[in-house]
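Researcher: Let's do a round of design. I'm pasting the structure tokens now; please hold your answer until I've finished.
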């Protein structure tokens, strides 16, 4: 409370500086004060004083809020309502006669500057600020209900993060007319209740309170009666009876039916919903609509199942990548996420069994005491301290805590406590923090790069592994959004092919609202304009560019899988030169950076195996050396030194002198 009073006093002082001594004698709170929004997590407070909106931070930092396109003299006459906050951003509803023709607009604000969230007008209501768990940190999200003026007050439920806003599926995939009822706690979760035009009541909450990065709305058992009609005065003239709807021809109905069927077939479910609503309104009771509604419901369910399976497969692929570098804990976490997407999925069970076998093989790699000591010494020499700790734990389980164990454990403790290593730990944590900042703005390439640097500073740091797991989840979510975007772009392309330019423009507007970070909407609008003029050259050129860029991205991913990182880099650079705004390029580049980091971690494991092979040769344990080489060939086929090591073993068996040294692990 003391901090709040200091914030308010600072703002009062700032406003009163030009108004004489009387301003300092105001009551508390001062006249003309109205609170708008308080965010304790980000320490910001927004309120109005004599109609002017202010932002305060800390005990002294207070500034008047400026709104792009709004004159200062208009602020006092405006209607301003809070809509919630998401990290450093906060959102306001603004309405004033001299701004956007008096229509209510949603403002997105950062510090003391506000601007329009988008060009869409409509009454907006904040549903609350929700907490989301991201690894070891907590982020905030704002949920906003907007009733679109251009769509007869059709509802739009918006979920806003620190960097962008997107429409939630509940209103994105269906035409609903909702009004806000209230918010509170229910079943241990924060919830907001909305009323549908039909009277049904929806409860909107996070699937896992304070954790899930989404809001899900479900129908409750409550159904409310219609709003009471306005009372007409005695002198009022009764309204004329509504005009009968124009009778449509069979050709119109058939064309509408074909358009609905085409939208369902192409996966444009939003347009199919809109067309079906229009059809049932214009041609009520027609027998053609129920089968189309059933077809739409089935198609939507099938696509949802396909998307869930696709997300599960991506999670399984991430699990395998974690397992390949020995991070079995996060591999299992990825598989558990896959279970949540598709329960009982056969591919998940198969991957779990293969990863379990891989874990068993890894545990049986070193069987003799000298093999462990050689691998531990190599890990300590390379400052792979967490790997040394794991090997020491395996050693103690197999051979007990003997003198060799204690000597190496003491050496490990001394290395960890040394000043230079602590500096490297601090550097790694700083890099992880930078990576998480990049993750917040969906810059996956920079996040992967920072985590790779953190790994080099302090190899095996658990915090790096956790950040990498969180990044994997974010990248998978981005790929899912990319699939949705690809469907929208495909539907727009089909509309261009059929010369349905009005529908294409509508789809572009919807796509821009849903996928605001995609940079290709301007090109699509130019393509629409040129196609309307009867000039198909630009449309054909853009289509060709997209096809060529996607081919290069596919080639880059194949090169990444094969370990040819130079070829992958070149393919992505070529794709970038063709279509810099293509989101697939950023995802593929992040995958490439991750593959490079994985290879660096595998190189360390190869060095441990080579050290144990050297120890086996020194003790003339040729069978052990052969076994380690065979295991290494299978697990690390990219290493070019297995043939030389096999030759060394063969030469040693024959008693021939062996002067060749095994080459270091080769990176590509």
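Researcher: That's everything. Go ahead.
Model: Designed sequence:
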């Amino acid at each position: 409370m003391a901090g709040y009073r200091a914030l308010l006093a600072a703002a009062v002082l700032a406003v009163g500086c030009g108004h004489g001594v009387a301003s300092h004698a105001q009551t508390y709170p001062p006249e003309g004060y109205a609170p708008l929004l308080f965010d304790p997590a980000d320490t910001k407070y927004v309120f109005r004083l004599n109609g002017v909106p202010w932002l305060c931070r800390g005990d002294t930092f207070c500034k008047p809020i400026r709104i792009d396109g709004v004159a200062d003299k208009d602020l006092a006459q405006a209607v301003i309502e809070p809509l919630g906050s998401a990290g450093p951003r906060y959102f306001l509803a603004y309405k004033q006669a001299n701004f956007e023709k008096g229509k209510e607009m949603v403002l997105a604000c950062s510090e003391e500057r506000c601007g329009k969230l988008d060009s869409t007008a409509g009454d907006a209501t904040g549903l609350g600020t929700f907490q989301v768990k991201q690894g070891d940190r907590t982020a905030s999200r704002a949920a906003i209900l907007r009733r679109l003026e251009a769509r007869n007050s059709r509802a739009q439920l918006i979920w806003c993060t620190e960097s962008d806003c997107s429409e939630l599926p509940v209103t994105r995939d269906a035409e609903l007319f909702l009004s806000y009822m209230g918010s509170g706690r229910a079943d241990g979760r924060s919830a907001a209740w909305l009323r549908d035009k039909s009277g049904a009541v929806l409860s909107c909450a996070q699937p896992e309170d304070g954790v899930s990065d989404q809001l899900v709305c479900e129908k409750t058992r409550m159904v409310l009666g219609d709003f009471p009609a306005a009372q007409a005065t005695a002198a009022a003239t009764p309204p004329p009876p509504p005009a009968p709807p124009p009778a449509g021809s069979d050709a119109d109905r058939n064309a509408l039916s074909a358009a609905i069927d085409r939208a369902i077939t192409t996966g444009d479910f939003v347009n199919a919903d809109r067309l079906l609503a229009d059809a049932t309104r214009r041609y009520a009771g027609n027998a053609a609509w129920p089968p189309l509604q059933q077809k739409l419901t089935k198609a939507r369910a099938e696509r949802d199942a396909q998307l869930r399976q696709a997300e599960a497969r991506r999670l399984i692929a991430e699990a395998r990548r974690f397992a390949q570098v020995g991070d079995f804990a996060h591999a299992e976490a990825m598989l558990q996420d896959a279970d949540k997407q598709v329960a009982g999925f056969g591919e998940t069970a198969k991957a779990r069994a293969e990863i379990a076998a891989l874990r068993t093989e890894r545990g049986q790699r070193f069987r003799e005491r000298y093999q462990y000591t050689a691998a531990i010494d190599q890990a300590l020499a390379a400052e792979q301290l967490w790997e040394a700790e794991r090997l020491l734990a395996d050693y103690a389980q197999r051979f007990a805590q003997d003198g060799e164990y204690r000597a190496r454990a003491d050496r490990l403790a001394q290395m960890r406590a040394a000043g230079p290593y602590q500096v490297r730990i601090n550097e790694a944590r700083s890099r992880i923090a930078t990576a998480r900042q990049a993750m917040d703005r969906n810059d996956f390439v920079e996040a992967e790069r920072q985590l790779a640097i953190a790994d080099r500073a302090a190899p095996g740091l658990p915090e790096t592994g956790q950040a990498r797991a969180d990044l994997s989840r974010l990248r998978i979510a981005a790929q899912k959004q990319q699939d949705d975007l690809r469907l929208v772009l495909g539907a727009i392309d089909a509309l261009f092919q059929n010369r349905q330019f009005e529908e294409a423009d509508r789809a572009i507007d919807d796509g821009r609202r849903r996928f605001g970070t995609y940079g290709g909407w301007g090109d699509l609008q130019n393509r629409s304009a040129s196609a309307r003029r009867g000039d198909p050259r630009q449309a054909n050129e853009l289509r060709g560019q997209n096809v060529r860029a996607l081919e290069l991205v596919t080639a880059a991913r194949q090169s990444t899988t094969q370990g040819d990182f130079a070829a992958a880099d070149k393919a992505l650079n070529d794709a970038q030169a063709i279509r810099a705004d293509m989101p697939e390029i950023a995802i593929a580049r992040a995958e490439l950076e991750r593959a490079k980091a994985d290879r660096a971690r595998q190189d360390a494991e190869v060095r441990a195996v080579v050290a144990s092979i050297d120890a086996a040769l020194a003790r003339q344990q040729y069978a052990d050396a052969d076994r380690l080489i065979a295991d290494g060939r299978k697990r690390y086929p990219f290493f070019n030194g297995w043939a030389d090591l096999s030759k060394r073993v063969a030469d040693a068996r024959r008693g021939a002198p062996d002067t060749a040294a095994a080459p270091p692990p080769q990176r590509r």
